[in-house]
Amino acid sequence: MKSKKSKIIPASRKTAKAAAFISQGKGRVFINKKPVEILNPLMARERILTPLEIIGDSRNTIDITVRVSGGGYMGQAEACAIAISKALVVHFKTNKALRSNITNFDKHLLSGDSRRTETKKFGGPGARRRKQKSYR
After folding, report:
1. Burial 94-116 (b: 16+ CB within 10 A, else e)
2. Which CATH class, in words, describes the domain spanning 9-111?
3. Given this model, what pLDDT does residue 132 score?
4. For residue range 14-73, what is the model confidence (pLDDT) as tens digits?
5. What is d(CA 62, CA 87) in angstroms, rounded to the nearest whole number?
6. Engineered SS bond to 59: which of 52, 84, 97, 113, CB 3.0-4.6 Å?
7. How far apart are CA 68 and CA 114, in angstroms?
8. 53: enclosing H helix or E strand
9. What are the two backbone dihedrals, phi and then psi, of residue 67, each rounded to the nearest 5 degrees?
10. Is the pLDDT reported for residue 88 higher than 60?
11. How is residue 123 annotated by DSSP?
């Protein structure tokens, strides 16, 4: 008997894009077909697993598969966390307290974070920095 997968839940953070799938299972989490336990650095792994710590014992009844691309490792970790949070809310739709628990912990886990890099302008090496002037 094939396990029933939930629909694909997309999420993004800066330039990183992630898509999460949830199916019935034993609590395993895969990021790009690799177990999350071998993911380095540790800080990124902890950020990815944050939504699963919020749901508690329910995490042992599901398997999560995430595809992620683009951005740096922390942007990818944030995108994975957002995708997993959204997928958990869709998967456990009968649990109304789950959405509020996730939102109380970090509101950006469900809504995302709209901050982006400011574009570079002319007259300087970066977005805001300009060449120094001296009038003396």
Report:
1. eeeebeeebeeebebbbebeeee
2. alpha beta
3. 83
4. 899 999 999 999 999 999 999 999 999 999 999 999 999 998 888 899 999 999 999 999
5. 11
6. 52
7. 18
8. helix 42-55
9. -105, 130
10. yes
11. T
